[in-house]
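Appendix B. Worked example

We walk through a single record from start to finish. Start with the input: the chain for Lipoprotein, Pseudomonas baltica, length 112.
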Amino acid sequence: MDRCAMEFIARRWWRRVEVWVIAVLLVAGGSVLGFQAAQWSLASSYVAQVAQVRHAYDEALKQRDLRLTRLANSTTEAAVKVEQAATSATQAADTASKAVDKATEAVDRANQ
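Next comes the structure step. The output line below is what the pipeline stores for this chain.
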């Protein structure tokens, strides 16, 4: 009778241990699954943030290129104006040189 009672108790405790082991495995599996789901969600949010940063960077590059194009155009226009001013200055210098030559000739005639 003692043997029968011991086997009954052993089977009962073994079933309890089996239930606890299964419960622990289910909880551990659920925890791992939850952790993986959280990591996947975090990775997808990081991908979205990186896409936003890339979009902002591309927009900033477009703005920079636009400013550089405007700067190049205004520099070209300024160079054209400087060239025109240099041409005008050269013509003015030539005219002044001719006037000086005429004045010199007039002074020479007056001195003779």
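Two observations about the output. The chain is about 100% helix and 0% strand. The mean pLDDT is 92.
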